[in-house]
Input
Amino acid sequence: MILPIVGYGDPVLRKVGEEVAKDYPNLNETIANMYETMYNACGVGLAAPQVGLAIRLFIVDCEPFSDSDDVSEEEAAQLKGFKRTFINAKMLKEEGELWGFNEGCLSIPDVREDVYRNEKITLEYYDENFTKKTEEFDGLIARVIQHEYDHIEGILFTDKISTLKKTLIKKKLQNIMDGKARPDYRMRFVPKKR
Output
């Protein structure tokens, strides 16, 4: 089922996600709905807070980046089949050079900005079968994971841009909070105060 994506300004996007218990109700259905929602919105990642759930769960599918002219053949091969579910993820290390990349977010439609992130990360997490894993990721895969990981920590990519850039996008952010954004996927905006 395609779920509405929560828009910028909703308090759930600022909450640190709660740990997901093995017996979390309808977890497999939630994960399946998140994948369907992400693909419907042409995203490469989606975190549970973006569908209104303040839990430590996010998904990524980096395949769309594999066709980009900006990636090497080697990285394209890594991106090709990279699809993962991350439950109760914990960032163990962020290392390497900071590098910029133009990021966007399904909860913040029509806003894209350069964000600087570390090139390599080490993450501990559980997969959809609750198998514990510790893995290193780098390049675009690491970037997508860092972006989604930030969501379960209550952090948005707009928090990582300069004050000047924030000033320049203020009107766009206000439009999202006012429910005026019109992406080509379902969104849920912050209810207006009366």
